Amino acid sequence: MKTHFLKPGDNKIIIENLSNLFLEDSDLHIAVAYFNSEYFADLIIERAKKKQKTLLILNTSDLIRPKEAGKSEIVISKALIKILKHEGNYIFCKSLGLRVLGNYQNMHHKFIFTKNKLFFGSLNLTDAAINRNFESLLETDNKFLIKDFYSEFGKLWNIGSELYSDRDGKLRSIMCPKCENSDGVDFESFGPICHMCGYNFIVD
Questions:
Q1: 193 in a domain, yes or no?
Q2: 3-state class of 168 per DSSP?
Q3: Contact predicate 116/26, CB 8 Å
Q4: Half-sphere CA count of 81, side-chain side, radius 13 A
Q5: Of the chain's two ends, which shows fewer C-beta atoms within 10 Å, N or C?
Q6: In the prediction, which pLDDT does 167 show?
Q7: 181 in a domain, yes or no?
Q8: pLDDT (mean) for 79-102
Q9: Model confidence over 112-150: pLDDT tens digits?
Q10: Distance of CA 169 to the CA centre of its chain
Q11: What is the dihedral of CA 137, 147, 157, 124, to 10 degrees?
């Protein structure tokens, strides 16, 4: 097992090690609370082009966030939108956790694995985590640990909500912060807008 500590600045070697996991030919499983890294989004899309399967679980409450602390503008990650537009036979996304009328649940896992290797620790796949935060990350090829995380991922996947639906183009788990309804959130037809109340999202 290897221990990695990220700090603000140059984490090039650690990120290269993690990136190599995305280059493996086997199925890739990702459970992180928040995702906004276009770098890793591009790696996932490249995997799909090579017909390599990726399964991604995110925290429902973190799918949309205020643009800045104390501000009313709500942002959805550009990297996530990029992935969702490529979702199909090789990219699958679900979310877990709720934020509705004060009923808060949090999916706070951060682990990524294939059949050969596992990374787990405090790292979300975000620009801040990769470039500006102090983070810890453990890397292992221990088959027993990988099996345990595979089992946990399966449990999360089974109770997670479908994030995107090809049937009608809606981002089902993304709730409008104004009318608290997900039925009108459709990013495909007319852009990032809630058709129930007219709220405009920001993609950033």
A1: no
A2: coil
A3: yes
A4: 15
A5: N
A6: 47
A7: no
A8: 77
A9: 999 999 999 999 999 889 999 999 999 999 999 999 999
A10: 19
A11: 0
Task: Give the chain's domain count.
Answer: 1
CATH number of the domain within which 123 lies: 3.30.870.10
Contact 96, 160 (CB under 8 A): yes
Nearest to 39 by CA among 54, 19, 55: 19
Residue 137, domain extent: 2-163
Pull the structure tokens for residue 126.
């975000």
Q: Return the SS3 of 93.
A: strand
| Alpha carbons 191 and 187: distance in angstroms, whole number | 5
Strand ordering across the sheet containing 64-66: 64-66, 74-76, 202-203
Closest CA to 75 of 104, 44, 36: 36
Decide: residue 17, CB within 10 A, 0-12 exposed, 13-18 middle, 19+ buried.
middle
Name the nearest CA neighbour of 107 among 54, 69, 163, 53. 163
Q: Residue 185: its pLDDT value, please? A: 64
DSSP-based three-state secondary structure for 200: strand
Residue 123 phi/psi, 5-degree rounding, is: -85, 115
Residue 147: CA count within 13 A, CB half-sphere: 3
Residue 169 lies in a domain: no
Q: How far apart are CA 76 and CA 177, in angstroms?
A: 12
Spatial separation of the C-alpha atoms in residues 66 and 59, rounded to whole Å: 15
Residue 186 lies in a domain: no
